[in-house]
Design goal:
By secondary structure, this protein is an alpha/beta fold. The chain contains seven helices and seven strands, in the order αββββαβααααββα.
């Protein structure tokens, strides 16, 4: 089943679904996508699915969102879409690539990459990131990847080839695709993380160099 068809079936059954900071409601004419905090607000600005990419660019203060799965998606909008294909397009604009990763997991084709492997394959100015210690990883990942202020993806990768948990400072729910990373206990479509992002790699480099920068995700 295509992801758009699965989304449609879920909405037909539940009328509402959640993914990251998004809430999707089935309507008579299609679907409505809101910020998860916003349903019920009367002053939302109407948008089409083509606007989703721009909506995802900035937080409420106008700062650029370098990490699209950081829990700082702006408020005050709603997107109307007429079918499940447009819905998938809007979600993919806000959370790029996450539906494709979910499809790969469900088909048994998803490959994860440990943090150590990701760091060891870096070159140039990022090569030094591979020198990060296990304790530094534990501290950095525990802060950078936390759902309450860092990133709302569910981590599937391990720290190293020994299958070590990425950080003991993160709760077990951070590694559970069935858990709601927003902490609201709702049944969500997960945003999956199959390998460390470029921002985490850069933070590892800064940690090794002792600059202390980028201790948490933007």
């Amino acid at each position: 089943m295509k992801e758009s068809e699965r989304l449609l079936e879920s909405l037909r059954a539940e009328k509402t679904l959640w993914i990251g900071q998004l809430e999707v409601l089935a309507s008579d004419d299609g679907f409505v996508v809101y910020h998860r905090d916003d349903p019920g607000r009367k002053n939302l600005t109407n948008h089409a699915s083509d606007d989703a990419f721009e909506i995802a660019k900035f937080d409420d203060t106008g700062n650029y969102r370098a990490l699209k799965t950081a829990p700082n998606l702006g408020h005050g909008w709603k997107i109307f879409v007429s079918n499940a294909a447009e819905l998938e397009q809007a979600i993919d604009a806000i959370y790029p690539g996450r539906l494709a990763v979910l499809r790969a997991l469900e088909s048994g084709e998803l490959v994860t990459t440990s943090l150590r492997e990701t760091l060891n394959r870096q070159s140039g100015m990022y090569r030094v990131a591979a020198k990060i210690s296990d304790q530094q990883i534990d501290d950095l990942v525990g802060d950078f990847c936390r759902s309450d202020g860092g990133c709302v993806r569910t981590i599937l990768w391990k720290r190293d080839e020994r299958k070590t948990v990425p950080s003991a400072k993160l709760p077990p729910e951070k590694f559970d695709p069935a858990a709601d990373q927003m902490g609201k206990g709702e049944k969500c479509i997960p945003l999956l993380c199959q390998e460390a992002c470029n921002l985490l790699v850069a933070a590892c480099r800064e940690k090794v160099k002792g600059k202390g920068a980028a201790s948490s995700a933007p």
